Each structure stands twice: as C-alpha cells, then as structure tokens.
Amino acid sequence: MDTFEAVRTVLAVRKYQDKPVPPDLVRRIVEAGRQTGSGLNGQPWHFIVVENRETLRRLGSLARSGPYIAQAPLAIVVAIEKTRFAVSDASRAVQSMTLTAWSDGVGSNWVGFLGMTEVKALLGIPDTLDVLAIIPFGYPVQAAGRGKKQRKPLAEVAHRERFEQPFA
User: Which of 54, 70, 93, 130 would bridge 33 by S-S if both were Cys, CB 3.0 to 4.6 A apart?
Assistant: First the structure.
C-alpha cells in the first residue's frame, strides 16, 4: 500500500484478533518510529514494546480510555524526554508506526495523553521521562471499512495564500 492510501484508509481499531504480530513486523513498526524526523534531530522518544499478556492487561486497566489494550497482542508505550519538541516529535513517530502497521494489515489506536504515572511505575520508566501514549496493535477482528471516514470538505479546511481564500 502506498503512503497516501495508508493515510486515506487508516482507521482506529479497538478490537483485535487473538493472533500475534510477527516479530519482523514488530521490528518494522518500531523502526518506523525510530526513523521519523525530529526537531534538531533530538529523537526525544523511547519505545517500550509490550507483548506479555499480564502486562497488557495491567496497561488496559490503567488506561481509562483504552481498556481494550488488554485484548491486543502488542502495545508500544511511547515515553518522551521533557524537551521542547518532544510531544510533536513523538506524535510524528506514533503516526509513522501506525501507518506502517496499517499498511501491513495491523490496526492500532492512540490511547492516553501524558500524565500516566502508573504506567511509568509498571514499566520502570524513569521520572526524567513522561509517558505520551500507549499504542495497542493487532489484526482487526472485523474488516475495517478502509477509507470510510467522516471528514470536513477540503474547502472548509484548506486555504490558499491567506485564510478564507479558497484552496480549490
């Protein structure tokens, strides 16, 4: 799948098959995050790959917005340094991992946003870092309706040269 097709069709997946993500694909997903550009090449991220069933259950219980993590075969916890560009840089890395996974048939969804101190304790993440997000990954239970999104028309969100000058 080419990049634009992945962007156009990616959807949030919250129900996963009981099927592991192959190790080579897990490595490819993490590598996509690592290869992402960052401000001043700071690379202010750390990726904790979690596949242990009990740890996934505990992550699911700690993340109020993502109890479905417990059913995922894999989650990547994204920890960030406390630097100026860390949130935007690591968000870019999350998108790279999400799109890489999606292009190989693996769904995911962003869970949480900072302030997850219990996750830090569970995974031994030092106090010098913050947990930005938990990203569960897995093969979708149902075929996701690729590309069936509700988005505002391009004319509402894109402008040419100045605000409110039509792009199209």
Answer: 93
Of the candidates 115, 120, 74, the one whose C-alpha atom is nearest the C-alpha of residue 97 is 74
Whether 144 has a pLDDT exceeding 70, the answer reads: no
Number of neighbouring beta carbons within 10 Å of residue 55 = 17
CA distance 42 to 104: 28
Nearest to 107 by CA among 9, 39, 10, 5: 10
**What is the bridge-based pairing of β-strands 107-108 and 45-50?**
unpaired
C-alpha 34/C-alpha 93 separation (Å) is: 7
C-alpha closest to that of 52 among 109, 131, 123, 140: 123
Using a 10 angstrom Cβ sphere, with 0-12 exposed, 13-18 middle and 19 or more buried, the burial of residue 103 is middle
For residue 116, is pLDDT > 70?
A: yes
CA-based radius of gyration for the chain: 17
For the segment 50-82, what is each residue's pLDDT rounded down to a tens digit?
Answer: 999 999 999 999 998 999 999 999 999 999 999
Neighbour-count burial of 80, counting CB atoms closer than 10 A to its CB (0-12 exposed, 13-18 middle, 19+ buried): buried
Question: 106, 59 in Cβ contact below 8 A?
Answer: no
